[in-house]
Every structure is written in C-alpha cells, then in structure tokens.
Task: inverse folding
C-alpha cells in the first residue's frame, strides 16, 4: 500500500479531521521527534527521523506492503520537505501526499503581503552563494529558509559583504508555536549581531522607489550612459565586440576586469553573469568612485570593486573563467602572465589596446604562457553633423586580442 506523507502545517493545530484520521490509522508513524511527541497516545509504532535517511527509506520499503506507514512532515511535504525524497526513494506510485500550509506562506500572511512573485531559497543544510546572489539581483521579494549555521545574522553579513542593499528584512521565529515572534528591520545591518530562536526564516523585500530604479543595460551602451574621465572609456561599438570575444556563455562565470577604468566592460558583462561575479580591479581612487557610481546607476549586485596595483591581481580573488585587460601600458606583459597562471581550463583572456607596441608585447607574453591567440583590428567611424550635411569621423583603431585556454581531460 502507498506510504502516506502528511504535512503538519505549522503545528498539529493545522491538521484537518481527515489528516488526523490518517495519522490515527497508522501502524508505523514516522516523523521528527517534536512531531511524534504530539501523538504519544496513539498505539502506532514510532520511528523518529534521524540523519540516516537512506536507511530509513530502506526500512520503510521492507514493511510498506504489510503495514500502514504514515510520515509526518513539516509544513508542505513537497516544499523543501521530505516528500520529494520519499517519491525518489519509493516511486511516485507508492507515495500519497497530503499538503498543508508552508512556513513561507505563513510568513507572508503574517505581514499581509502577496507572494506569488516571490523567490524562495533554502540555505538549510546547503548553500550556493551564486544562487543566492542571483535571487537577490533578480527578485524584489525573497524568502530564505535558514538553519543553525546559516542564520539571519549570517545572511545580513552576506548582504553587506557582497554590497547588497535596499531590502527591508523580516525574521520569523518558531511560527505556529506559543512563542512565535515576528521582527521587522529597515536595514539588514540591525540583524548582524542578533540571535534568534530556531527554527526561523527570513523575508527580504526590496525598497525601490521609482526615482531610483536602475537603468536598462545591454551590450554597447552609449558612452554617455557611464560616468568616465575625459573620454577614457572603451567605446560603445568596441565594447560590444569585446563582450562577444569574452564568450560569456554561462551565467556562473567569474570575470576579472583588470585596469577597469570606468568599469563599463565589467558592468555590461554582469548582464550575462547573473549567477557569477565580476571583479573590477583598479588603482586610481577617482576611477574607483566612477566604477561604484556606474554600478549603482545600473543596479548591479554582482560586481565587486578591488583597489589594487597591477600586474599582480589580489591572491584572495577566485580564479577567473574570463579576463579582460583594457590597456596596461608597460606592465601589460606582466599583467597577462599573472592572469594566465590563474586562468581556469577553458578560460578566455581578451586584451584591448590602441598602442602598436602593446600588440606585440601582448602576443609575445601570451605565447610564452603557452596560449594561441587571435587578433582583430576594429576601427569605428561615427557620424558628425556639418552645416549642410554629415560626415564620418574616425575613432582610433583598436586591436582586440583573444586567447582561450584549452580544456584538459
């Protein structure tokens, strides 16, 4: 007979009469200790859920043909719950699911906020920084299921360390119990040093007045869309070709933008790397300010600005999948050698330069590092209005050098 999985909701008070009848008919009652405590009066054999879920599934499989097995689950069994594990282990035809209210549904109900457009993420027993950052960039409402390690305070520090701001934050403690509590914070910094009762969950809601909505972003944005210094920016058309040469074919790549200047290339790359990270490395304070201004202008959450002198990129940076170098001067060969040593298999380096001497220096440095290179020269002419018509005005030619590290078996 099928194993029955019953969602408890927030507490036994959420159980309907039908669900209570199912639980009362069990020969074997499986659940967390706190769930089983509410049914000590029943004659069913009690099996507490421990760490060995594979062993539990095997034991259930042995007895399910002869005994009625009922599994008690928190909230909704198929919402980050044990229901999915039961279906995978026993087969969908051998499991019957009775859902109930989830903690996330209850949390949004407590603050009287619709949540059909919310993103729900779990860091309970698992953590994927890129998934969490992607959710924070894409969504205005996020619910985060926490655990004893990834606490609300930990989440608040994560937001600060990754430059994520503009969210109001709610913490929900022990929903559905006698000591349930809900806390509201206008700034995540208020949460960092707070300790909350377990279990708890966090809801983040973005504060986004229309006047501060980020600008749209696409490859080859007009140069005047960026704050920059006296025209020192990778020009619009060259930027679009450069983005193409970087081959941003996965959303989780790590990109180094070395000598980032205004940050225009790295910022446009963020459009494709919503699960990845861009590290803009720049030494001049005034350009650091421009990068941060441009980052905020476009609402970018996955670009970190690093003030450092090249050629050596900071050792703390994760190894890159992609590297862009927009100049480099006399240090260009050393910058490329340093980046090449850290580049991951299958990685791409793209160099833009307007200096003839730098073309030769870059090619030599990359070949010394064992790379094959491809070089493209691009020259853009733009229309310029004259008294009785238009003429084309040529910009400086730019050499774009691309190299790809082969994958190793």
Result:
């Amino acid at each position: 007979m099928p194993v029955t999985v019953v969602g408890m909701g927030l507490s036994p008070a959420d159980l309907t009469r039908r669900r209570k009848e199912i639980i009362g008919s069990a020969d074997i009652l499986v659940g967390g200790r706190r769930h089983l405590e509410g049914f000590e009066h029943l004659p069913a054999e009690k099996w507490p859920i421990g760490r060995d879920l594979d062993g539990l599934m095997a034991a259930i499989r042995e007895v399910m043909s002869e005994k009625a097995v009922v599994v008690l689950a928190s909230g909704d069994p198929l919402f980050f719950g044990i229901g999915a594990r039961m279906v995978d282990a026993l087969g969908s035809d051998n499991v019957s699911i009775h859902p109930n209210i989830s903690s996330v549904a209850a949390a949004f109900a407590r603050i009287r906020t619709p949540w059909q457009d919310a993103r729900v993420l779990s860091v309970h027993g698992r953590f994927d920084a890129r998934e969490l950052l992607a959710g924070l960039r894409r969504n205005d409402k996020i619910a985060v299921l926490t655990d004893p390690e990834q606490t609300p305070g930990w989440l608040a520090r994560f937001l600060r360390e990754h430059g994520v701001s503009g969210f109001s934050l709610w913490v929900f403690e022990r929903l559905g119990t006698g000591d349930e509590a809900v806390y509201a914070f206008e700034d995540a910094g208020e949460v960092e040093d707070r300790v909350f009762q377990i279990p708890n969950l966090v809801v983040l809601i973005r504060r986004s007045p229309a006047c501060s909505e980020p600008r749209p972003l696409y490859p080859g944005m007009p140069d005047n869309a960026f704050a920059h210094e006296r025209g020192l920016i990778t020009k619009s058309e060259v930027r679009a070709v450069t983005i193409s040469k970087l081959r941003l074919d996965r959303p989780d790549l790590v990109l180094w933008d070395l000598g980032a200047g205004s940050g225009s290339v790295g910022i446009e790359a963020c459009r494709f790397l919503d699960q990845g990270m861009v590290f803009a490395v720049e030494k001049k304070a005034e350009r650091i300010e421009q990068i941060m201004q441009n980052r905020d202008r476009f609402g970018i959450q996955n670009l970190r600005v690093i003030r450092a002198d090249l050629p050596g990129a900071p050792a703390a940076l994760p190894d890159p999948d992609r590297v862009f170098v927009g100049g480099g001067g006399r240090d260009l060969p050393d910058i490329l050698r340093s980046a090449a040593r850290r580049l991951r298999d299958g990685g791409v380096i793209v160099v833009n330069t307007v200096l003839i001497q730098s073309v030769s220096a870059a090619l030599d440095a990359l070949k010394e590092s064992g790379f094959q290179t491809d070089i493209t020269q691009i020259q853009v002419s733009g229309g310029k209005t004259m008294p009785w018509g238009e003429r084309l005005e040529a910009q400086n030619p730019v050499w774009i050098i691309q190299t790809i590290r082969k994958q190793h078996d």
The first strand starts at residue 3 and ends at 7.
